[in-house]
What does this fold into?
Amino acid sequence: MKAIKSDFRNFLFLCWKHLSLPEPTPIQYDIASFMQNAPKRSVIQAFRGVGKSWICSAFVCWKLLNNPNLKFLVVSASKNRADDFSTFTKRLINEMEILVHLSPRDNQRGSNVSFDVAPAKAAHAPSVKSVGITGQLTGSRADFIISDDCESLNNSLTQSMRDKLSDNVKEFEAVLSPNGKIMFLGTPQSEMSIYNELGLRGYETMIWTARKPKVVQIKKYSGNLAPFVVNNKAKEGEPIDPIRFNKIDLEEREASYGRSGFSLQFMLDTTLSDKDRYPLKLSDFVVMDINNNIAPVTVAWAGSSEYACEDLPSVGFTGDKFYKPMFTSEDFTDYTGSVMSLDPSGRGKDELGIAIVKQLGGNLYVQKCTGISGGYNEDNLQLIAREARNAQVNKIIVERNFGDGMFTQLLKPVVNKYYPVSIEEVNHSKQKELRIIDTLEPVLNQHKLIVSPQVIREDFDTKDANYQLFHQLTRITKDRGSLRNDDRLDALAIAVHYWIETMAVDTDRQLQDHRDRLIKTDLDRFMSSALGTRPKEDNWIT
It folds into this structure.
């Protein structure tokens, strides 16, 4: 018993045995050792699936075994997740022979989400209590606060969400007993993770990655890599815990998450917000209502604070906001044209990407950009045809790099029925990420891409951020496979590329027409000189 009480790793071994699990892996033992010896303020960042929450539940049991009068407050992103933690902890207490004496008595609190342990002295605060990060923390009291994945995609997607989360976390100090401890467990969900901020507040951070980082990458972690990782005998890029995740497994997960997602979830690398790596910015858009038929002749962009769209959700990096135009002319005119572009790879987890972009005077108006699941079933084909009709598009552009043109053949009869319009296929051989960035970056830099606020709001309503257009746009890099999903972004790039090429052809045609007029003028002058006749007035360029 002395060995079990004095070393949490021994207790963890017993827990895993009780749960019929294999012996804890070396990395799990290392995390357990850090938990036991952690300072008053600590952050444990470990890759997804390493079992840190289970380890921490066992840790709570071990601490109560040593001191049943301790008070624990478990906080998670949602009340349900926090409750799952406390429920699992209570089960261990009720089921493990070494802990059963801690089970609550009849006259004690005994719910799964708020319970006492039998030897505990009477107190206002329960031995273990669970609460969501947005729940009522005021009135709680704890010797030990455990924040288990308090950061999630749902509460850290925008800057305002991250600010709110940061404020909620600060409340921990108000409910902590004197000399109490706070321990964060989690995996960063964004490049602006709250876990980065905690280091500035005096928290000691320890990071366990799924692969051994390269020597040149180690400095990214600011000295917070666990010595277990740094000194591991694995080669650079090899799994740190091959028992849990082998090389093939990690490669499969990288393909599924996308390179940037894998870097966050498995390599705990939050340094990816480098401006050079993420060239596409929300701030380069112009946001304004878009009419279906006409647009202002002139639109002027402004990036000053008074034109910031504070009411629109921004999923970009810190400080990256949408902006309204500084000026729009009073003169409106018809669009030069309107196209719908389709990225028809919508099978499995992919979407069928749809973008509707109109053009006037060199400005491109994004009237719609969304995605639909279900591939090329009849309902989706009809939806595409109706959207084309409603937007009065002049052409539908389909990426041919899917199904060898099968999608177009299925779409044509449906379009002809609802809204006869020409359909054009395009082929792309260039690496997708490079093509998208090379297409959109110059247009955005010139502030020629105008988007409707409705498009932004509807896009944000997409529950999974990986499918959101503006999340894809701000996270794409030139690395192959940098995005988990890119269907909406690709559809937008296809439409923009079409207009770039069309405008280039129009410009060439205008230049050629100008040259032809100059040649004709010179010829008329020559004829006037040679024959003594005066050129007609309309031959002169004024």
DSSP finds 19 helices and 19 strands in the chain. Residues 508-539 form one domain. The chain has a mean pLDDT of 88.
